[in-house]
Amino acid sequence: MTIKLLCIGKTDNKSLISLITEYEKRLSFYVKFTFEIIPDIKNSKNLSEAQQKQKEGELILGKINTTDALILLDENGKQHDSIAFSNYLQKHMNSGIKQLVFVIGGPYGFSEDVYKKSNGKISLSKMTFSHQMIRLFFIEQLYRGFTILRNEPYHHR
């Protein structure tokens, strides 16, 4: 199985980029992982919130295959602790899907079309974090999940 993380907009913070790269490298020992950035919509300040979500949604859906499982990182999604999230990953690996795609949307969330296409929603916290920091937090949790599945000492129970 491949895990893909799709994000809207680039990260400018060199410290975050360095940490994200470190966890991507660690994660590669456990699973094929791809991290893809969809560029910000040009002239978005001239668009309404709904128009921006619609345009971003079209770009997101253009990156999804019909056989992918699409999971949205959404504030209204189900929350898991790290052990439950590792079990969530294992369940998807056991299901036989080829690619599990997680998506971090733009500043206004997702379009209705993206919600309709999705196979689920998860939330990392009730708190709000920047879209740039969520990337690091999520990739770290993926790594943590795989170390839990392998009974490795990274996660102290």
From TrEMBL:
Q: Which GO terms describe its molecular function?
A: rRNA (pseudouridine-N3-)-methyltransferase activity
- Superkingdom, natural source: Bacteria
Which Pfam families does the UniProt record give?
SPOUT_MTase
- Enzyme Commission code: 2.1.1.177
- At which positions is S-adenosyl-L-methionine bound? L73, G105, L124, S125, K126, M127, T128, F129
One GO CC annotation: cytoplasm
Has UniProt tagged this entry with the keyword Translocase?
no
Which HAMAP family does the record match to this protein? 23SrRNA_methyltr_H
Q: Which family does it belong to?
A: Belongs to the RNA methyltransferase RlmH family.
Q: Could you identify this protein by its name?
A: Ribosomal RNA large subunit methyltransferase H
